[in-house]
Write a structure and sequence with these properties.
4 helices, rod-shaped, 104 residues, 2 domains, 8% strand
Length: 104
Amino acid sequence: MLSMFELTTGDNWPDTMHSAMNAVAIDSQPVINHSSQNGLYFVAFICIAFFLMVKVFVGVFMKEVRSIAGAYIVDFSSDRVTEAGPHSRRFRKRYAACTGQGHA
């Protein structure tokens, strides 16, 4: 499990892959490129892990951007930006309309 975490971070993963490719059996000496199909497993795992890590990073980033952008109401007709805190009347009306709780 620790090796898989090391692979996910991308730290020194080629050495781990080469060690797995050279493995033969328990109590046997390693043979260079004995099982090259292990290399395909490592490459596939790295691609999937990096894709998931990027997806998580982008998701957290977008959540933070939305929380910051949701704190303000932009009125394009008058080019005015007003703060929309939880105690703002406009915020309560929009929240009630989105959740179907009626008017606040």
